[in-house]
Amino acid sequence: MRKIIVVGSGVIGLSCAFLLALEGYSVKVITRNPEEATSWVAGGMLAPFSEGLEGKLFDFSYMSLKAYPEFVSRLEEVSKQRIDFWQEGILRVVLEGEEELIKKAEDYKSKGYSVSFFEPAKNLSPEVKSLVLYGEEAWVDAEMLMDAFLFAMQRLGVEMVIDEVVKLERREDHIEALRGLKERYVADFYLFSTGAWTKELFDLPVFPVKGQALKLKHVSLPKVHYSSVSYLIPRSRYLYVGATSEEGDFSRCNTLEGLHRLASGALRVAPFLARAELISSLYGFRPATPDELPIFETGENYMLLTGHHRNGILHAPLTARLAVDYISRDIRSSFFEVFGSRRFSS
Ligand SMILES: Cc1cc2nc3c(=O)[nH]c(=O)nc-3n(C[C@H](O)[C@H](O)[C@H](O)COP(=O)(O)OP(=O)(O)OC[C@H]3O[C@@H](n4cnc5c(N)ncnc54)[C@H](O)[C@@H]3O)c2cc1C
Q1: Following DSSP, what letter does each residue of 61-118 receive, concatenated?
Q2: Which domains does the chain have, with CATH numbers?
Q3: pTM of the predicted model over 0.90
Q4: Mutate to test the pocket of ligand 1, among 313, 314, 339 (most ligand atoms within 8 A of CB)
Q5: Distance between Cα 31 and ligand 1 center (Å)
Q6: pLDDT tens for residues 244-273?
Q7: How far is the CA of 239 from the centre of ligand 1 (A)?
């Protein structure tokens, strides 16, 4: 059996480790700190339409959205953990002056996707002019998803090692070993999913876009309200309010400015949240690239999957499927060209 090392325990690394272990590989996950992964703080929206994606990124995102129901149920089955997953569509909030969003929605509708238009509910702010329901969109409780992965790793015998990989021992396109702070690691194949920290190991333009978010004590909201100033995401025990976008910022804290932006963004859509009780605040680092596309790089015995930016939770099932097809069946999806790192070499 081939031995595979996955570096990084965010949603991308754990999705790959999960499918590889199910294929019978001997998998080890090396992670600097499991709690550091941005995936724990994500809103969990699976929202290629609300995000306004286009072209190949839309195609990839939409295919991954369609892979979600089966992926979640397989993960629930193996982990024996429940994962809250809502498949009832996301409401794209159209604020005053944002008529271009209606045009965009009509464009998706003309292509045959499920799009309906609604008058805003009475309790939303007068600034909300319209609501677009993207019926195929969904959302998942990202914390439950990540928890389930950790249980699945245990059940599948995937070893989780806490260490920081500080150097790759490389001979051109071939990796001979990984140098960790604690040990040296050798495997037949290496898969890197190091998120916003990728630049520490690879000379590629991946940079952090910090996102702050809040949890509010449960306020009843029937669906995700996705607007340009905030997104309000109901989970079973609380309401998640996201998120700021702070480019290049790796500071490990919530800031007063960030919290202010979140609170005012939420109130611009839903004034009835004014007296909602704050439970906690969160922050994480989206792995971004200059053209906002992921990076899929392959070498002789390694693969790097990163740069999922705002949509890593959405992209996880398809990314992992393509990684496994490549490793075990030598099938190279055309997305390896579209997202290839060669696009950055001049
Ligand atoms: C506030 C916020 C809201 C978001 N909302 C959504 C959403 O609604 N929907 C969506 O699809 N996406 C969302 N995202 C984006 C999503 O969270 C990311 O795209 C995704 O989590 C990236 O996953 P990843 O596995 O690549 O990286 P991460 O989850 O960050 O994991 C990287 C892992 O690599 C490890 N690591 C790094 N370097 C090393 C090293 N040298 N040695 C060992 N380990 C290392 C880290 O410790 C970490 O465990 C959101 C992000 C934020 C911040």
Answers
A1: HHHHHHHHHHHHHHHHHHH-----EE-S-EEEEEETT-THHHHHHHHHHHTT--EEEE
A2: 3-82+141-202+290-344 (3.50.50.60), 90-135+207-288 (3.30.9.10)
A3: yes
A4: 313
A5: 12
A6: 999 988 999 999 999 999 999 999 999 999
A7: 21
